[in-house]
């Protein structure tokens, strides 16, 4: 709200205030000292266009206009030493233009502009004598390249790309449009696809709407949509910045009225020159509101709408909270919407919802502090009551848009998917796509699947996640094939089908996805679904370690060397070495415990080999004794009872010693055992031993599956337990618990049979 300018002499002194003013009706931006008494400022206080003007520090008055453009606001200016004007800048058709006042530099820039053909060129640095210049060139189809101009050779040499990873990409240059209507001249840009073209135009109003300029610089969203076969139209309607104060003020209070008429005027001009089979409006913030209003005002024209982070109840802007109900905030809103009036309902989508016919994708952030989420929620509620065709994507932990590209990508991919489904556009034919295009679509499907597989931003939806993983898998993605396999493996959203799971694991393994190779190696090693095959297990485990030599892959390979028969290639030394060398993170330690559990139960070790494994376990977990007795053993159904005393833990209370257990709708029922360990001669909290537990289950078809191997260690004074929640089982299953010591001796075995209660 308030601008304060202070200065201090270069050679030291005190800060001195030059001016203070409220920047509401005009702008005043300091640029440079012209002399000790005079500043050069960019201002529109006394003019319609923003000009470069002198400002007298002592009188606080504006003086001579140094430079002005007849059509555009100046956006920047620069002075050399001694108050000599170097250049001024302005935006013409969304591209920044520079006027240099030194003839040599001006001629150089003219040559550069001819070379870059309409793109934006900026001289950003030069040698002291001006013979070498660093030039930055960018535009709608170029993210940005740095060039060196050497006057001695008179050559331009590409020096550096801003995004070298995009070097091989081909981007689309937009086409400028100019439309005159009465005393108004509107500038716009349209971007056409160059390969795949669905003859679909997306009309995209910008946000703001007051004081915002849609530039024609590189725009990742535009390039994304164009690459998917859409044309995109953007308009700098009345209220946009860069065209003078009067042009900007003409947009105030024109929500849903003259602003949308400007957009429609340009659209009509476009339609007189080009033909499209579909037209949709799409926008964010004010653009989301405008996208809806365009379809309400022109129901025969728009086939769908995508509205993001928008405002849809204009009176709510003035009273969404106590803070927004105050006079100060109301005055800010009035600069865009105009004065508060009940007539605002006439331009509010929530009051015009019955006039809205187009299918809608409504996107919002639940933490939006600019366009409050209540706007989207109200609009959704009313449209649902009217049985309107609407889809919503309401992001948790999100404000007025995303703060990283991963979720920008998710939103862009969702919008594209919505447009394809809603407009019945033909699907991509894989055989006609380049490898680069296939990879791009694969990344889209992965982004969509990941959004539904992660509860941070969206409510998890396994069905939709699976659908998109399948599509990504069809494009040859290893991770997607692995995830599809895991869905079949677990029976998540689809019937459990180990044959299909194995097929997708194999595909993922062939695509060098290390998690799939590790999973296949483990399954062959343990005989899960596959018949045990130690040779295939080693093949996949080594491939996993080669693809991604991380500690967990190494841990699985270590297990193989410990549990295979001697006749194949058992190597206890190598097994223990691999486990010992891994960095001791929590995940690695858990993997070591998992390995020790499998080795204890399944490995046919010689006494010498067993002694080495035991010494490793004792050293790593500081175990004192491996032989003990199980005592005070309770087995059956337990209930977890919360403690009524502050700071005292709850306890598991044995309810029924029967091993035939009913499955009830409760979360606090557990089955298994509680026990104590008795180590001869030891009764201390600081002397440890360890046990290994194995859970396996037999389903109603007689199929036996190992569920868990568990290595636990502790002292003889603390209670021990191995329990599971009853909700983790299904009726008809028989679960078996076995307990071993590290001498490979089974100490306990019990079966638990389950029926529906």
Structure commentary:
The structure is a single chain. This protein is an alpha+beta fold and 757 residues long. It is 31% helix and 29% strand. The protein is built from 18 helices and 30 strands. The strands form seven sheets. The chain has an eight-stranded mixed beta sheet, with helices on both faces. The protein has a five-stranded mixed beta sheet with strand order 24-30-29-26-27, with helices on one face. Helix 5 links the parallel strand 18 and strand 19. Helix 10 crosses helix 11 and helix 16 runs parallel beside helix 18. The longest helix has 18 residues. It is elongated and about 100 Å long. The two termini are 68 Å apart. The relative contact order is 0.04. The mean pLDDT is 91.
Spell out the key features of this protein.
five-stranded mixed beta sheet; alpha+beta; elongated; 757 residues
Structural class: alpha+beta
Shape, per Cα inertia axes:
elongated
Total beta strand runs: 30
**Level of helix content?**
25-40%
* Low-confidence runs of at least 5 consecutive residues: none
As a percent range, the share of strand residues is 25-35%
The overall average pLDDT, rounded, is: 91
User: Cα distance, first to last residue?
Assistant: 68 Å
What can be said about the biggest beta sheet?
Answer: 8 strands, mixed
Radius of gyration: 35 Å
Number of helices: 18
SSE map:
Blueprint: E1 2-7, E2 16-22, E3 28-35, E4 38-43, E5 51-56, E6 61-67, E7 74-79, E8 85-92, E9 95-100, H1 103-116, E10 120-126, E11 132-139, E12 142-150, E13 155-161, E14 175-181, E15 184-191, E16 200-203, H2 220-227, E17 230-236, H3 245-249, H4 258-273, E18 278-284, H5 286-297, E19 304-308, H6 327-337, E20 360-365, H7 373-385, E21 390-395, H8 405-422, H9 435-452, H10 462-474, H11 478-490, H12 498-510, H13 514-526, H14 534-547, H15 551-563, H16 572-581, H17 586-602, H18 607-621, E22 629-641, E23 651-656, E24 660-663, E25 669-678, E26 689-698, E27 704-714, E28 720-725, E29 734-740, E30 746-756
Parallel strand pairs: 16-17, 16-18, 18-19, 19-20, 20-21, 24-30
Antiparallel strand pairs: 1-2, 3-4, 4-5, 5-6, 7-8, 8-9, 10-11, 11-12, 12-13, 14-15, 15-17, 22-23, 22-25, 25-28, 26-27, 26-29, 29-30
